[in-house]
């Protein structure tokens, strides 16, 4: 990916837009879920999916029989990741807003058939959510490997949008006796709920690493 990512020629350039790779990558790398949009049988579809970024490629995976895996080969797709940082509470309903960081990626979906690339992609997706988890679990069986599909989204263009700060009211409204401000929102991984069939009590290292990665 180049240092600056050019927007699609028909996309209006906003004052909140960012096209540098560092900003785009940071938002992608700290997201838990990506929403993937595509057209299937002439119907628009948007599906939340686990993912991981590797340079200019975003890997997504699912059951090989799933429609997005089974039917989306070399087709255009749009992937989005959003973080909500706060509710912006203004003095008028019109000026209420949301503080957020989001990324929109356009590219083409490619079916990953090479076994080595597929395994690497599965390791990346697993470790994106729980860093180091792949090495903590038993190896994937051949049956499981074959039942899992992986698509690669080659990034053709990407843009980030970020909104921060206080509400922006009409100047005359600042004299009104109405509270305004920001109700902050944070993405956070909380406590654990042990499987009642565990035969070990010690938490794996990946739990602490996931909290370190995703919690503020």
Describe the structure.
Helices cover 21% and strands 36% of the residues. The chain is α+β, with helices and mostly antiparallel strands and 216 residues long. Strands 1, 2, 3, 4, 5, 6, 7, 8 and 9 form a nine-stranded antiparallel beta sheet that branches. It starts with 16 loop residues before the first strand and ends with a helix.
Short description:
The protein is an alpha+beta fold and 216 residues long. It has one domain (17-214): Electron Transport, Fmn-binding Protein, Chain A (Pnp Oxidase, Chain A). It is built from five helices and nine strands.
User: Tell me, what's the shape?
Assistant: globular
Q: How many DSSP helices?
A: 5
CATH superfamily descriptor: Electron Transport, Fmn-binding Protein, Chain A
Proportion of beta-strand residues? 35-45%
- Class from helix and strand fractions: alpha+beta
List the helices and strands and how they pair.
Layout: E1 17-18, H1 21-29, E2 34-40, E3 43-49, E4 51-54, E5 57-63, H2 67-71, E6 75-89, E7 97-111, H3 115-129, H4 142-147, E8 148-163, E9 181-184, H5 205-214
Antiparallel strand pairs: 1-8, 2-3, 2-6, 4-5, 5-8, 6-7, 6-9, 7-8
Features:
216 residues; alpha+beta; nine-stranded antiparallel β-sheet; globular; 9 strands; Pnp Oxidase, Chain A
